[in-house]
Amino acid sequence: KSSARNSITDQKQLPRVSKTPGRTQHISVFPVGEPESEQRLIDLPGYGYAKAPPAMRAHWQKALPRYLETRESLRGLVLIMDIRHPLGPLDAQMLIWCDAAELPVHILLTKADKLKRGPAGNTLQSVRPKAAKLCGGVSVQLFSAQTRLGVDEARAQLDRWLCG
What we know:
Layout: H1 2-9, E1 28-31, E2 40-43, H2 54-70, E3 77-82, H3 89-100, E4 105-110, H4 117-134, E5 138-142, H5 151-163
Parallel strand pairs: 3-4, 4-5
Antiparallel strand pairs: 1-2
C-alpha cells in the first residue's frame, strides 16, 4: 500500500514503506497538495494482512463501516489489492461497506509487474464484474509502483473526486 500511495502522490515517504505488510493499525491522516489545501489522504488500517490482536480486528470491523458512512468529507476510497490475491473476503466486505455508504471505490490491482500482460489482463477482467456486484460505484485498474503502470490513471481518478 505504501509504495502505491508514494507513487500516486509523488512523495517519497508520505507513509513509510515497510518490508512487513500490515503495519498500518490506526487511521492516519496525511496532507496532500499545496500547504493551504484542505485535501487529505486517509490511510485506513491494513486489516487484511495486519499483525493485530483479535480484539483490534474486531474493533476495525465496527469502526470502519461507521467511519465510511459518517465521514462527510470523504470523496472516495482507493482499495489496494495485490493482483496475485485479489478480492479476498475482507476486500469484499470493504466493497459492501462502501456500497452501503454510497461511496465510490477505485481498485488498484498492485504489483501488476509480477504477472505477464495476459494473466494481468485476465485478472483485471475477472475482478471488474465481481467487484461491481458488491459495490455499484466501482472502477478497477492495473497498477505497479515499480514500473509506474497506472499512476496517471489513479491520479486522474483522485482528481475527479477532489476537483469535481
